[in-house]
Amino acid sequence: MRSRSFRTRIVLWSVLVSGAVLLTFGMVAWWSLQRDRISALDESISTFGFRHATRASANADVERMALSMVENFGEERAATRFFAFVTSQGKVLHLSPGWPASIDPLSFEPSPVLLDPQPSVPRPPPRDDREESGRRARPVYTPLFFSVGQKDDTFRIGVFANAEVRLLVGADLRELSGEVDALSRAFLLALPGALLLIGGGAWWIARGALRSINALGEGMQQVSARSLGTRLETGRADREFAAIVAQYNSMLERLERSFHQATRFSADASHELKTPVAVMRGTLERALLESGDDSGAQAVYSELLEQLDRQKAILEGLLLLSRADAGQLKLSSEPVDLSAKLNLWLEDAGYLAEERDITIRSEIDSGLQVRGDVGLLQQVAHNLFSNAVRHNVDGGEIVCRLHAGGDFLILDISNTGPQISESEREQIFARFQRGSAAQGTGSGLGLSLVREIVTAHGGTIALQSEDGKTIFRVILPKISPV
Predict the structure, then answer these.
(1) Which contiguous run of DSSP H or E holds residue 474?
(2) For 12, phi and psi rounded to 5 degrees?
């Protein structure tokens, strides 16, 4: 399963949540602004409508009303305003020049409820005494407002009525829509930049928050049996991350204590058992000499000596592994002519291969040198050759190749034995691990020892399969001959 980036998820969720919040805020703000603008428009229309509806009659002065519209709304906005007079019987008395032809003024019914309280509007100055006597306030009904859409245009119509006439006052909403749309465009243009800033901020915050986790991950990568004493510093980490680091350090302390106890036990046990093994070997050798011509006793003593040798090899291997685990594997550092040594060690391997009629073939370039411990390198070669014989077939073949590759020497030891499965390859270097196709009585420590010795010499070892052969490849740093 493909892993996901926690930091990326934080940024994505921050951007998504913030984007949703901003869009919701924008929609609410747009709706509130639209409503407020409509309310302000209705209020301005009401001021004009109440002013004239309280005194309007069938013979109202429409010219004076048109001038009043300019006074009330201003000359620029008056151009987008219009009005109409309709009698209570449904007769159109007047339509201002700006009245939309597509809107029927008779389609707007007034409210049947009188406004309570009645509006308080300033009384206009009379032009003569006759007008003064004829102008009296008339009760008006509750105004009604309608939004009417006609093709690409939308209009707001207010209906103000008294007992005699209905005054319809309208406004073109394109003016309001233009203002709201301009603000909407500005918001939408600013939204990507805001989300980019939010994403960058989330990335920066996540980077700082995860700094302790990254340090913990780097510390985990560096942990090995030789560095269990290393502890992570909490530094300026937040409280939550500092607690995780503290728990990690506590875990390392417990592991170090347990590991040292196990290593000490392995080393002490291996060391203490060497003495009784040596005593047992001496006793068996003496008994073998004293057995005379008793072939049965000689066979038993010889088998016991063979098992003691095997036990001694296991103890020495455990002791070496415990030293390697504790970082106390001491190497002598001297130039070793690996080409010459391999030729000698192959002769010893030939005795092991003769019993099973296995052919050993070598392709060793001359003069190749490494720096290291010749005794431990011999143990590497012996274990690999023994492994190649043990896991081979009767009449099979072992090929030893040594050549230079850049600054390294490459040693390949292959055999024609049964192939090792992929699952076993991953565990083949584990301690006391023996493949399912193993033959003989190997201890299961040989390849573990080989890996530890090769690693101590700054090299690597890997298991490969090629052309039906099992190949152990050892890569060691090369030195130039003096």
Answers:
(1) strand 469-477
(2) -60, -45
- What tens digit of pLDDT does each residue of 280-291 get? 878 877 877 777
- Spatial separation of the C-alpha atoms in residues 125 and 121, rounded to whole Å: 12
Per-residue pLDDT of 77-127, as tens digits, reads 888 889 999 998 889 989 988 888 888 999 999 999 999 888 887 766 555
CA 80 to chain CA mean position, Å: 58
Contact (Cβ atoms closer than 8 angstroms) between residue 116 and residue 84: no
Say if CB 479 and CB 370 are below 8 A apart: yes
Q: What is residue 211's three-state secondary structure?
A: helix
Name the 3-class secondary structure at 81: strand
Rounded CA separation 126/399 (Å) = 126
The pLDDT tens digits for 192-233 are: 888 888 888 888 887 777 776 777 777 777 666 666 667 777
CB 271 within 8 A of CB 322: no
Banded pLDDT at 134 (limits 50, 70, 90): very low
Instruction: Indicate the SS3 state at residue 213.
Output: helix
How many angstroms separate the Cα of 151 from the Cα of each of 70, 100, 148, 154?
27, 12, 10, 8
pTM for the predicted model, two decimal places = 0.46
pLDDT above 70 coverage of the chain, percent: 80
The sheet carrying 397-405 orders its strands as: 359-364, 397-405, 408-415, 469-477, 460-466
User: In whole angstroms, what is the distance from residue 70 CA to residue 72 CA?
Assistant: 5
**Residue 60 CB neighbours (<10 A):** 18
CA distance 273 to 287: 21
Alpha-carbon dihedral sign for residues 403, 406, 409, 413: negative
Count of C-beta atoms within a 10 Å radius of residue 477: 13
∠ CA 308-312-316, rounded to 5°: 175
Higher pLDDT among residues 317 and 475, named by residue: 475
Backbone angles phi, psi at 99, to 5 degrees: -65, 130
Q: Which residue has the higher pLDDT, 29 or 328?
A: 29
CA–CA distance from 374 to each of 331, 341, 364 (Å)?
A: 9, 9, 18
